[in-house]
Automatic annotation (TrEMBL):
Keyword Lyase assigned: yes
Protein name as annotated: Uroporphyrinogen decarboxylase
Reactions accelerated catalytically: uroporphyrinogen III + 4 H(+) = coproporphyrinogen III + 4 CO2
Marked site (Transition state stabilizer) residue numbers: D76
Species of origin: Pontibacter cellulosilyticus
Residues bound to substrate: R26, Q27, A28, G29, R30, D76, Y153, S208, H319
Biological function: Catalyzes the decarboxylation of four acetate groups of uroporphyrinogen-III to yield coproporphyrinogen-III.
Compartment list: Cytoplasm
GO cellular component: cytosol
Superkingdom, taxonomy of origin: Bacteria
Alphabetical list of PROSITE patterns matching this protein: UROD_1 (PS00906), UROD_2 (PS00907)
Domain Uroporphyrinogen decarboxylase (URO-D): 21-30, 141-157
Length: 346
């Protein structure tokens, strides 16, 4: 199906665009009363993720309400460990909790390389339902967590400030870490290929805990597996967003992907230099800007757009939008990007 708005795809491929495309990580979610109405009618977060029609509904809400240039399928990176046999619970106000963790070879034997059509079919169905409902209005982004980030949760058992159990494994049992990363990578590659087959127009790989590794460990335990996934997905553009991995930007220039996501700590000019001219950059406004006045949001958004320049940029925040953000402030950010970048690109 021909896209009516293909700005995101063209910008990712480095084509000239009439204005900068804009979307937000975590745009489908708690900032919208419409999302909360759907969520509150259910038993919890996981029921929403696993019900294709409802996942599609909340995926499309920000397109209707915030007027963004892309939808991102409503799901979670932790569906992958669940599909592998490492189940999680989503605890209100606490985040994910894994009743069983992977700490030794016996734990590893309990896992499988998941078949996306068997173990993650609800996500693929949600993509198909969303595509039909969007009817080509905007592209649909599919996603998964990067292997290191998924390992971090499976070994740690929950979110953490240090991920000391997961990082410790890289020193105490690197062989086990690589075996687990191999299984996660094989699962993730098949899963993302299946998302593309189901209709995803672009793929994003989230390495949320990239920044807690040393550069040496990142190059051994994270980068090769991301690189392998990028090499496998050649049907649609791929974005790699590795939060905090400023030390790896030069390495990212060699990845077989179109776009590199920047968090708000990353200097735009230096990132552009490190990544090189052949990659599009995505980001990187501080999500906390959206707590400020409309005037400040407009001013800072214009400054960001000037720094990135009119081409090879996808406007976004440097991380997911925070749940207590006023949707009107988000609309201000989106509209400012659209209006100001249109004047820049003339």
């Amino acid at each position: 199906m021909q896209l009516k708005n293909d700005l995101l795809i063209r910008a990712a491929k480095g084509e000239v665009v009439e204005r900068t495309p804009v979307w937000l990580m975590r745009q489908a979610g708690r900032i919208l009363p419409e999302y909360r109405a759907v969520r509150n009618s259910l038993s919890g977060f996981k029921e929403l993720v696993e019900t294709p029609e409802l996942a599609a509904e909340v995926t499309i809400q920000p397109v209707d309400i915030l007027d963004v240039d892309a939808a991102i399928i409503f799901s979670d990176i932790l569906v992958v460990p669940e599909a592998m046999g490492c189940t999680y619970e989503m605890v209100e106000k606490r985040g994910p909790l894994f009743p069983k963790t992977v700490r030794n070879e016996e734990d590893l034997k309990q896992l499988r390389v998941a078949d996306p059509h068997e173990h993650l079919n609800y996500v693929l169905e949600a993509i198909k339902v969303t595509k039909r409902a969007l009817n080509g209005r905007v592209p649909l982004i599919g996603f998964a967590g990067a292997p290191w980030t998924i390992l971090a949760y499976m070994v740690e058992g929950s979110g953490s400030k240090t991920f000391s159990q997961a990082r410790g494994m890289l020193y105490t049992n690197p062989t086990l870490a690589h075996q687990l990363l191999r299984m996660i990578t094989d699962t993730t590659t098949a899963y993302l290929k299946a998302q593309v087959e189901a209709g995803a127009n672009l793929i994003q790989i989230f390495d949320s805990w990239a920044g807690i590794l040393s550069p040496a460990h990142y190059r051994e335990f994270a980068l090769p597996y991301i690189s392998e996934i990028c090499d496998a997905i050649n049907e649609v553009p791929v974005t790699v967003f590795a939060k905090g991995a400023f030390f790896a930007l030069e390495d990212f220039s060699k990845l077989n992907c179109e776009t590199i996501g920047l968090d708000w700590n990353m200097d735009i000019a230096k990132s552009r230099k490190d990544v090189g001219p052949n990659k599009t950059l995505q980001g990187n406004m501080d999500p906390c800007l959206l707590y400020s006045s409309f005037e400040t949001i407009e001013r800072e958004t214009k400054n960001m757009l000037k720094e990135f320049g009119p081409y090879r940029h996808i406007a976004n925040l440097g991380h997911g939008v925070y749940p207590d953000t006023d949707p009107e402030k988000v609309k201000c950010f989106v509209q400012t990007v659209k209006e100001y970048s249109h004047t820049m690109n003339k």
